[in-house]
Specification:
By secondary structure, the chain is of the alpha/beta class. The chain has two domains: about 100 residues, Rossmann fold (3-Layer(aba) Sandwich); about 90 residues, Formyl transferase, N-terminal domain (Rossmann fold, 3-Layer(aba) Sandwich), CATH 3.40.50.170. Helices cover about 35% and strands about 25% of the residues. It is built from six helices and eight strands; from the N terminus they run E-H-E-H-E-H-E-H-E-H-E-E-H-E. The two termini are about 25 Å apart. The structure holds glycinamide ribonucleotide (GAR). Glycinamide ribonucleotide binds next to helix 1, strand 5 and helix 6. InterPro entries: Formyl_transf_N, Formyl_transf_N_sf, GART, GART_AS. Pfam families: Formyl_trans_N (PF00551). Pathway: Purine metabolism; IMP biosynthesis via de novo pathway; N(2)-formyl-N(1)-(5-phospho-D-ribosyl)glycinamide from N(1)-(5-phospho-D-ribosyl)glycinamide (10-formyl THF route): step 1/1. Catalyzes the transfer of a formyl group from 10-formyltetrahydrofolate to 5-phospho-ribosyl-glycinamide (GAR), producing 5-phospho-ribosyl-N-formylglycinamide (FGAR) and tetrahydrofolate.
């Protein structure tokens, strides 16, 4: 059974979709949820699901990412994860941290990568006049949002869409895509999935 740790910063709806999928004959189980935001709603939601949950506030470390990551590593390494899923985790990780989990750290990003790395993805897709938007699950590498793509799900951008209406339609797609990709990765399948 593969052990999965999930890093969050906010509501944790992707974390919940992942955790709820890891039941029955699924080859993985959630072993830890960590948030850099101590008040993240996802922490209490994880605890209610019986998943060990921890907070490591980034603020006391200021701009010292390495010091924050040393603290983040403590609960993470103690949980001995085989796979680490970033699920709305909004801190940029240093190459040194990423290299510890090379090939076994996944992220979900709300755009059709390689388009729109970083923030405000839906607003940028609309402003560019794109016909489609969506989400991507990829391996995390040192380059932000640029690791190998494991899966994508897409939908049309509708006339009158705003960043908010688009985000509200893409989020349920994320909840389908991420568990589907995690299941494949946990089974040893790195083939690309398109929904
Ligand atoms: C999701 O839309 C996820 O794709 C995005 O944050 C949201 C988290 O929602 N992630 C990023 O923008 C990463 N750069 P959730 O906390 O409800 O899962």
């Amino acid at each position: 059974m593969k052990r999965v740790a999930i890093l969050i910063s906010g509501g944790g709806s992707n974390m919940i979709a992942l955790a709820e999928s890891m039941v029955g004959d699924h080859p993985a189980r959630p072993v830890l949820v960590v948030s850099n935001e101590p008040t993240a709603a996802g922490l209490s939601r994880a605890a209610r699901m019986g998943i060990p949950a921890a907070a490591v506030d980034h603020r006391p470390f200021g701009k010292d990412r390495a010091a924050f990551e040393q603290e983040l590593l403590k609960p993470l390494l103690a949980a001995e994860p085989d796979i680490v899923c970033l699920a709305g985790f909004m801190r940029v990780l240093t190459p040194a941290f990423v290299s510890r989990f090379e090939g076994r750290m996944l992220n979900i990003h709300p755009s059709l990568l390689p388009k729109y790395t970083g923030l405000h993805t839906h607003a940028r897709a609309i402003a560019a006049g794109d016909a489609e938007a969506g989400c991507t699950v990829h391996e995390v590498t040192a380059a932000l949002d640029e690791g190998p793509i494991l899966g994508q799900a897409r939908l049309p951008i509708l006339p009158g869409d705003t960043a908010e209406t688009l985000a509200a339609r893409v989020l349920p797609l994320e909840h389908r895509l991420y568990p589907a990709v995690l299941r494949r990765v946990a089974s040893g399948d790195r083939g690309r999935l398109d929904l």
